[in-house]
Design brief:
This protein is α+β, with helices and mostly antiparallel strands and 391 residues long. It is built from eleven helices and 18 strands. β15 and β16 form a beta hairpin. The longest helix is centred in the N-terminal third of the chain and has 17 residues.
Length: 391
């Protein structure tokens, strides 16, 4: 009987030993083992970084005593230009082509298993990629160093993205890959959706409330930055920001290629909660002035129109054939026998005194009509037709 009791005691002790509690860190990693979240090691209930034992995370390589991105083996420097209240500036940025190649190779498909990802989840996939995150954050850090004014930081971010060229060739050919935000920065080009996501990332990083306005009918996308409802787009509490080219914040009235104006109701996709762009009243009022001046910018309105264009970096940089650049505007070339003149007051086509038409005569650097009667005289005050009267 004693032998049986002894055997039962041994069995119970073995059972209890097998059921003893396994000590783990907060993420479920057992003591003295590496976490699935490399490079962390579970020691006495705490996760500590131990690269030499646990190695580097995926897409990271060991560099001395730290893990760095494996995509930084090749680099180049680009320049990001921006306009802030009429002053043009720029910042240099080191970029990494290998990271661009990695992002370009990621699948652009979404799977339903069984539920399909929401539109917000689809957009956040492009913004939340961890491999690009630290390199895009570098842009936001550089912006913060430019000014302590929070809303001016947002203005710089907006201007940087607006000044990245629109990918017209890709759009017209249909050869688009839906770039990730970092690819837009690296390639220095993008279409509306690509550039809008890039700006959304930067504004989110700067702490603003951000949405995307998605227009299915017009196949267009823009950004919304949180603002007072009185200045917002369709009372959405988000101010309209076009990204394809420099425009004044709140300007939602441009004409788009093959589309015209945006008239459909957009889907509003929340990207981030955050602070409001409270100083937007300045842009809103300037936009209203700009719209009126654009209808008639002759005479006294010309200087005001040019000043507003300069303030927001709206000047044309080059013109199509048969047009000439003057004060940031493209003007049609002058007709034969006339010379183009660009002044602060406007652009003019003046007669070319060295190439007057056959029915005109040169005088005081311009061309005058020939006299029907009398003799043509060129005087300091101008040309006259003198008629001799005999008494």
């Amino acid at each position: 009987m004693k032998k049986i009791a002894f055997l039962l005691l041994i069995i119970i002790l073995v059972f209890l030993e097998g059921c003893s509690e396994v000590l783990m860190c907060d993420d479920g990693t057992p003591y003295e083992e590496c976490s699935l979240n490399k490079s962390f090691f579970c020691k006495d209930g705490s996760l500590t970084k131990k690269i030499e034992v646990c190695g580097c995370p995926e897409n990271k390589i060991l560099d001395g005593n730290t893990c760095v991105s494996k995509f930084i083996t090749e680099s180049k420097i680009i320049t990001l230009e921006y306009n802030l209240k009429g002053k043009t500036n720029s910042m240099g940025l080191v970029v990494y082509p290998k990271l661009g190649e990695y992002l370009a190779g990621l699948p652009r498909v979404f799977y339903c298993d069984p539920d399909c990802p929401s539109r917000r989840e689809q957009e956040l996939k492009y913004l939340n990629d961890m491999e690009q995150k630290e390199f895009l954050e570098e842009i936001a850090k550089k912006i913060v160093l430019k000014t302590e004014n929070k809303d001016d930081q947002a203005r710089i971010a907006i201007s940087i993205i607006q000044n990245i060229p629109y990918d017209s060739i890709g759009f017209e050919s249909g050869n688009l890959n839906n770039r990730y935000p970092y690819e837009v920065i690296l390639d220095q080009k993008g279409v509306c959706g690509e550039k809008s996501r890039t700006l959304a990332f930067l504004l989110r990083e700067l702490g603003y409330g951000v949405v995307l306005f998605s227009y299915e009918t017009e196949n267009h996308m823009a950004v919304g930055i949180k603002c007072s409802v009185e200045y917002s787009y369709k009372e959405s509490n988000y101010c309209f920001v076009e990204t394809t080219a420099p425009t004044i914040i709140t300007n939602d009235n441009e004409n788009y290629l093959n589309v015209g104006k945006l008239i459909s109701e957009p889907e509003i996709i929340l990207i981030s909660e955050g602070k409001s762009f409270d100083s937007v009243k300045e842009e809103f009022e300037d936009y209203l002035k700009y719209q009126k001046l654009r209808e008639n910018f002759e005479g006294e309105n010309y200087k005001l129109f040019i000043e507003l264009r300069k303030k927001y970096g709206l000047e044309e940089k080059e013109c199509e054939e048969e047009y000439i650049l003057c004060n940031g505007l493209c003007h049609k070339e002058c007709e034969q026998h006339r010379l183009f003149e660009c002044t602060e007051e406007g652009a003019y086509c003046n007669w070319d005194a060295n190439n007057c038409p056959e029915n005109m005569i040169a005088c005081n650097n311009t061309c005058w009509g020939k006299c029907e009667k009398g003799t043509f005289k060129c005087k300091k005050e101008g040309a006259v037709c003198e008629i001799t009267v005999y008494s």
